[in-house]
Amino acid sequence: MGVEGCTKCIKYLLFVFNFIFWLAGGIILGVALWLRHDSQTTNILYLQLGDKQAPNTFYVGIYILIAVGAVMMFVGFLGCYGAIQESQCLLGTFFTCLVILFACEVAAGIWGFVNKDQIAKDVKQFYDQAFQQALMAESDMNNGKAVVKTFHETLDCCGPDNAVGAITPLWRDDLCPKKEFFLKNLIESSNCHKKIDELFSGKLYLIGIAAIVVAVIMIFEMILSMVLCCGIRNSSIY
Predict the structure, then answer these.
(1) What is the rounded distance in angstroms from the CA atom of residue 44 to the CA atom of residue 21?
(2) What is the DSSP-derived secondary structure letter of residue 47?
(3) Taking Cα atoms as reference points, which of 173, 123, 117 lies closest to residue 147?
(4) Is the model's pLDDT at 139 over the cut of 50?
(5) What is d(CA 175, CA 158) in angstroms, rounded to the nearest whole number?
(6) What's 138's DSSP letter?
């Protein structure tokens, strides 16, 4: 015997929320793949300075997002099927998966908040080392110049700060993007530390907004799945 009345409304409401959850998983998976193959981050994080690789903490987070998106799509499908079939077993499994996902998301959110500046900090340190080597004679013995030029061309910046960025083209005009006039270079030059912060902070905010939306959906789904599960149990008694 199927559920009736308000419980039936909850059944279809849960189905709608699960469909949205499934779509959210697909969107997160798509955004994660876009971030993984974004030209700016790829150009920078694939760099190698001598034997030292650019920090890959950002990519670790992206791979986690890809896994989360795939799991969300599976869990969303499980919830949709469980709601339509009115299966207590599937709904119980769905609820358990949601609790695990929610706990993982909270843990990842806390870790991300604590370490939100670490990714940009590591990349800036890597850039500073390459910039110092590119300005010194030892740059002929390694690829420091190529690493710095990649940073400058990708982010359209020059030097770790505005003062250095303004005078560097006079000293080493092969390191910075070409500007027609010195005054124009002084006015328009943007330091690479600022550009690196903007590059990663913008992407982290995007991830944070997506995580908050998904967390709200999961809370509603956990409540609805438990109410529906209790409704199915009560209807089977009668």
Answers:
(1) 33
(2) -
(3) 123
(4) no
(5) 8
(6) G
